[in-house]
Amino acid sequence: DAGVIQSPRHEVTEMGQEVTLRCKPISGHNSLFWYRQTMMRGLELLIYFNNNVPIDDSGMPEDRFSAKMPNASFSTLKIQPSEPRDSAVYFCASGDWSSGNTIYFGEGSWLTVV
Amino acid sequence: GIQVEQSPPDLILQEGANSTLRCNFSDSVNNLQWFHQNPWGQLINLFYIPSGTKQNGRLSATTVATERYSLLYISSSQTTDSGVYFCAVTNAGNMLTFGGGTRLMVKP
Fold it and tell me: How far away is chain A from the Cα of B48, in angstroms, using its nearest Cα?
Protein backbone atom coordinates (compact mmCIF):
# COMPACT_ATOMS: atom_id res chain seq x y z
CA ASP A 1 0.00 0.00 0.00
CA ALA A 2 1.21 3.51 -0.79
CA GLY A 3 0.31 4.84 2.63
CA VAL A 4 -1.50 8.08 3.37
CA ILE A 5 -0.87 10.54 0.56
CA GLN A 6 -0.98 14.27 1.12
CA SER A 7 -0.64 17.17 -1.24
CA PRO A 8 0.84 19.65 -1.61
CA ARG A 9 3.96 18.80 0.38
CA HIS A 10 4.94 22.43 0.64
CA GLU A 11 2.95 25.60 0.04
CA VAL A 12 3.79 29.23 0.47
CA THR A 13 0.89 31.61 0.08
CA GLU A 14 0.03 35.19 0.81
CA MET A 15 -2.23 36.23 3.64
CA GLY A 16 -5.86 36.29 2.55
CA GLN A 17 -5.52 33.56 -0.05
CA GLU A 18 -7.45 30.32 0.05
CA VAL A 19 -5.48 27.19 0.86
CA THR A 20 -6.68 23.66 0.12
CA LEU A 21 -4.85 20.64 1.49
CA ARG A 22 -5.65 17.19 0.18
CA CYS A 23 -5.46 13.72 1.62
CA LYS A 24 -5.90 10.21 0.28
CA PRO A 25 -6.21 7.72 3.15
CA ILE A 26 -5.05 4.12 3.07
CA SER A 27 -7.54 1.98 1.20
CA GLY A 28 -9.91 0.17 3.54
CA HIS A 29 -9.43 2.52 6.48
CA ASN A 30 -12.67 3.91 7.88
CA SER A 31 -11.31 6.77 9.98
CA LEU A 32 -9.49 9.90 8.90
CA PHE A 33 -7.88 12.57 11.02
CA TRP A 34 -6.47 16.02 10.34
CA TYR A 35 -3.76 17.23 12.74
CA ARG A 36 -1.80 20.47 12.90
CA GLN A 37 1.71 20.68 14.33
CA THR A 38 3.41 23.85 15.53
CA MET A 39 6.34 24.44 17.83
CA MET A 40 4.15 26.25 20.33
CA ARG A 41 1.18 23.88 20.48
CA GLY A 42 2.57 20.54 19.38
CA LEU A 43 0.26 18.10 17.59
CA GLU A 44 -3.37 19.16 17.72
CA LEU A 45 -6.33 17.20 16.38
CA LEU A 46 -8.43 19.43 14.16
CA ILE A 47 -11.16 17.09 12.95
CA TYR A 48 -11.93 13.41 12.77
CA PHE A 49 -14.10 11.51 10.27
CA ASN A 50 -15.53 8.04 10.64
CA ASN A 51 -17.02 6.42 7.54
CA ASN A 52 -16.79 9.80 5.78
CA VAL A 53 -18.88 11.54 8.45
CA PRO A 54 -17.35 14.27 10.62
CA ILE A 55 -17.50 13.02 14.20
CA ASP A 56 -15.70 15.73 16.10
CA ASP A 57 -14.55 19.08 14.75
CA SER A 58 -14.03 20.76 18.12
CA GLY A 59 -10.37 21.22 17.31
CA MET A 60 -11.01 23.35 14.24
CA PRO A 61 -9.65 26.72 15.31
CA GLU A 62 -12.26 28.96 13.73
CA ASP A 63 -14.72 29.36 10.89
CA ARG A 64 -11.93 30.02 8.42
CA PHE A 65 -11.17 26.30 8.58
CA SER A 66 -13.37 23.69 6.95
CA ALA A 67 -12.92 20.02 6.11
CA LYS A 68 -14.78 17.64 3.86
CA MET A 69 -14.67 13.97 3.05
CA PRO A 70 -16.85 13.41 -0.02
CA ASN A 71 -15.86 9.74 -0.29
CA ALA A 72 -13.77 7.09 1.42
CA SER A 73 -10.67 7.87 -0.60
CA PHE A 74 -10.41 11.64 -0.41
CA SER A 75 -10.52 14.47 2.09
CA THR A 76 -9.75 18.18 1.98
CA LEU A 77 -8.87 20.78 4.59
CA LYS A 78 -9.52 24.31 3.48
CA ILE A 79 -8.43 27.60 5.02
CA GLN A 80 -10.14 30.72 3.74
CA PRO A 81 -8.85 33.37 4.20
CA SER A 82 -5.42 32.25 5.37
CA GLU A 83 -3.44 34.15 8.01
CA PRO A 84 0.24 34.03 9.01
CA ARG A 85 -0.66 32.26 12.27
CA ASP A 86 -1.97 29.35 10.22
CA SER A 87 1.60 28.50 9.22
CA ALA A 88 2.21 24.96 10.41
CA VAL A 89 2.59 21.40 9.26
CA TYR A 90 -0.77 19.79 8.58
CA PHE A 91 -0.90 16.02 8.87
CA CYS A 92 -3.56 13.67 7.65
CA ALA A 93 -3.82 10.22 9.22
CA SER A 94 -6.05 7.22 8.65
CA GLY A 95 -6.91 4.10 10.60
CA ASP A 96 -9.30 1.21 10.98
CA TRP A 97 -10.78 1.58 14.44
CA SER A 98 -13.08 -1.39 14.03
CA SER A 99 -10.10 -3.68 14.41
CA GLY A 100 -8.34 -1.48 16.96
CA ASN A 101 -5.40 -0.94 14.70
CA THR A 102 -2.91 1.86 14.68
CA ILE A 103 -3.33 5.03 12.72
CA TYR A 104 -0.88 5.96 10.01
CA PHE A 105 0.27 9.44 9.13
CA GLY A 106 0.99 11.05 5.81
CA GLU A 107 4.17 13.01 5.31
CA GLY A 108 2.45 16.30 6.03
CA SER A 109 1.78 19.52 4.18
CA TRP A 110 4.13 22.31 5.20
CA LEU A 111 2.18 25.56 4.97
CA THR A 112 3.71 29.02 5.18
CA VAL A 113 1.45 32.06 5.03
CA VAL A 114 3.31 35.33 4.48
CA GLY B 1 -10.13 15.57 28.16
CA ILE B 2 -7.39 13.09 28.86
CA GLN B 3 -3.96 14.47 29.70
CA VAL B 4 -0.77 12.88 28.38
CA GLU B 5 2.58 13.80 29.85
CA GLN B 6 5.92 12.61 28.57
CA SER B 7 9.29 12.69 30.24
CA PRO B 8 11.98 13.70 29.91
CA PRO B 9 11.24 16.52 27.48
CA ASP B 10 14.80 16.41 26.14
CA LEU B 11 17.44 13.71 26.15
CA ILE B 12 20.98 13.62 24.84
CA LEU B 13 22.71 10.26 24.54
CA GLN B 14 26.03 9.00 23.39
CA GLU B 15 25.75 6.40 20.65
CA GLY B 16 25.45 2.96 22.17
CA ALA B 17 23.70 4.08 25.36
CA ASN B 18 20.32 2.83 26.53
CA SER B 19 17.36 4.99 27.50
CA THR B 20 13.84 4.85 28.87
CA LEU B 21 11.12 7.27 27.87
CA ARG B 22 7.98 7.58 29.94
CA CYS B 23 4.37 8.41 29.14
CA ASN B 24 1.82 9.08 31.88
CA PHE B 25 -1.87 9.47 31.14
CA SER B 26 -4.67 10.75 33.31
CA ASP B 27 -7.46 8.27 32.56
CA SER B 28 -8.03 4.72 31.35
CA VAL B 29 -7.22 4.20 27.69
CA ASN B 30 -8.31 1.81 24.97
CA ASN B 31 -5.48 2.66 22.60
CA LEU B 32 -1.89 3.72 23.12
CA GLN B 33 0.65 4.23 20.41
CA TRP B 34 4.27 5.31 20.27
CA PHE B 35 5.53 7.30 17.29
CA HIS B 36 8.92 8.52 16.18
CA GLN B 37 9.10 11.80 14.30
CA ASN B 38 12.34 11.81 12.38
CA PRO B 39 14.35 14.96 11.56
CA TRP B 40 12.51 15.19 8.24
CA GLY B 41 9.17 15.45 10.02
CA GLN B 42 7.80 12.03 9.21
CA LEU B 43 5.70 10.38 11.92
CA ILE B 44 6.50 6.69 12.05
CA ASN B 45 4.50 4.13 14.00
CA LEU B 46 6.58 2.25 16.53
CA PHE B 47 4.11 0.36 18.67
CA TYR B 48 0.41 -0.12 19.20
CA ILE B 49 0.40 -1.12 22.85
CA PRO B 50 -2.70 -0.47 25.00
CA SER B 51 -1.33 -3.01 27.47
CA GLY B 52 1.47 -5.50 27.88
CA THR B 53 4.94 -5.59 26.37
CA LYS B 54 6.18 -5.63 22.79
CA GLN B 55 9.61 -5.68 21.24
CA ASN B 56 10.86 -4.70 17.83
CA GLY B 57 14.60 -4.94 17.40
CA ARG B 58 16.36 -2.50 19.69
CA LEU B 59 13.06 -0.96 20.77
CA SER B 60 10.58 -2.29 23.24
CA ALA B 61 7.55 -0.88 25.00
CA THR B 62 5.56 -1.71 28.09
CA THR B 63 2.18 -0.34 29.08
CA VAL B 64 0.77 -0.81 32.56
CA ALA B 65 -2.76 0.32 31.95
CA THR B 66 -3.90 -0.05 35.56
CA GLU B 67 -1.20 2.38 36.66
CA ARG B 68 -1.66 4.67 33.66
CA TYR B 69 1.79 4.73 32.20
CA SER B 70 3.82 3.39 29.32
CA LEU B 71 7.57 3.08 28.83
CA LEU B 72 9.59 3.03 25.64
CA TYR B 73 13.04 1.45 25.86
CA ILE B 74 15.77 2.18 23.36
CA SER B 75 18.83 -0.02 23.61
CA SER B 76 22.20 0.51 21.94
CA SER B 77 21.06 3.85 20.58
CA GLN B 78 22.15 4.97 17.13
CA THR B 79 22.30 8.42 15.56
CA THR B 80 19.33 7.45 13.40
CA ASP B 81 17.24 7.18 16.57
CA SER B 82 17.37 10.97 16.91
CA GLY B 83 14.11 12.83 16.64
CA VAL B 84 11.01 13.28 18.74
CA TYR B 85 9.17 10.38 20.34
CA PHE B 86 5.46 10.81 20.90
CA CYS B 87 3.04 8.84 22.99
CA ALA B 88 -0.62 9.11 21.95
CA VAL B 89 -3.74 7.68 23.57
CA THR B 90 -7.48 7.39 23.15
CA ASN B 91 -10.04 6.78 25.85
CA ALA B 92 -13.68 7.53 25.12
CA GLY B 93 -14.16 7.95 21.41
CA ASN B 94 -11.50 7.49 18.81
CA MET B 95 -9.55 10.72 19.00
CA LEU B 96 -5.85 10.19 19.51
CA THR B 97 -4.41 12.70 21.99
CA PHE B 98 -0.69 13.29 21.84
CA GLY B 99 1.77 14.01 24.59
CA GLY B 100 4.30 16.79 24.24
CA GLY B 101 7.03 14.42 23.09
CA THR B 102 10.58 13.59 24.12
CA ARG B 103 13.24 15.16 21.92
CA LEU B 104 16.16 12.74 21.60
CA MET B 105 19.58 13.52 20.23
CA VAL B 106 22.06 10.70 19.84
CA LYS B 107 25.63 11.87 19.41
CA PRO B 108 28.21 9.82 17.50
Answer: 6
